[in-house]
Design a protein that fits this description.
The structure is a single chain. By secondary structure, this protein is mainly α. It has 6 helices and no strands. The protein has one domain: Four Helix Bundle (Hemerythrin (Met), subunit A), CATH 1.20.120. Helix 2 packs antiparallel against helix 5, helix 3 runs antiparallel to helix 4 and helix 4 packs antiparallel against helix 5. It is globular and about 50 Å long. The termini are far apart.
Length: 157
C-alpha cells in the first residue's frame, strides 16, 4: 500500500478526528503552562479530577485490551466490551480525558485550558456518534447496551 493510500484509508476510518483530538489535547496541555495563583481548594479539586481522569483512562484502556483503537471504526478483530467502567458509560476513555483536561485547567488557573477542554468535549461528542454508528452495524447487541448506559457521565449524559 502506498503512503497516499494509507493516508486515505486512515482518513476514511476517522483519522481526521484522531488527529484533531491529539491537537486539542496538546492545546489543553500547552494552555496550562503558565501557572496562575490558585487557592488550596482549587489545587485539590484540580488534582482530584486529574487523578480520577487518569485512573479512568488507564482502567478503561485495560478493560478494552486488544479492542483499543484511537479510530472510531472498530478493529476487524474487535469484540463488544460492556464490563468494567463500560457497564456504567459507553465512552469512559473520553470521559477520563475530559476530567484530566478540566482538572489541569483548574489546577493551573487556565481559562485557555478549560476552553480547549470544552472544544475537546465537542469533538468527542461527534467522534463518539460516528463510533456508535459503526458499533451498531457491527454488534447487534449494541442497541440494547446503548439504551441502558449513558455516553459520558453515569446517570447524566
Amino acid at each position: 500500500m502506498t503512503p497516499q493510500n494509507r493516508l486515505q484509508s486512515f482518513r476514511q476510518r476517522g483519522g481526521d478526528l484522531v488527529a484533531a483530538q491529539f491537537v486539542l489535547i496538546g492545546l489543553v496541555a500547552l494552555s496550562g503552562r503558565k501557572r496562575k495563583s490558585v487557592g488550596s481548594f482549587q489545587k485539590l479539586a484540580g488534582l482530584t479530577l486529574m487523578g480520577l481522569g487518569g485512573a479512568v483512562v488507564i482502567g478503561s484502556g485495560r478493560t478494552l485490551g486488544r479492542n483499543l483503537s484511537p479510530l472510531p471504526e472498530p478493529l476487524d478483530t474487535a469484540q463488544l466490551v460492556t464490563g468494567g467502567l463500560y457497564a456504567q458509560i459507553r465512552h469512559p476513555i473520553y470521559s477520563g480525558l475530559l476530567a484530566l483536561g478540566l482538572g489541569w485547567g483548574i489546577l493551573r488557573g487556565s481559562r485557555g485550558a478549560l476552553g480547549w477542554t470544552a472544544a475537546l468535549a465537542a469533538l468527542f461528542h461527534f467522534k463518539s456518534a460516528r463510533e456508535e454508528k459503526a458499533l451498531l452495524v457491527r454488534f447487534p447487541d449494541y442497541a440494547a447496551y446503548r439504551k441502558r448506559t449513558k455516553r459520558f457521565v453515569p446517570g447524566v449524559i
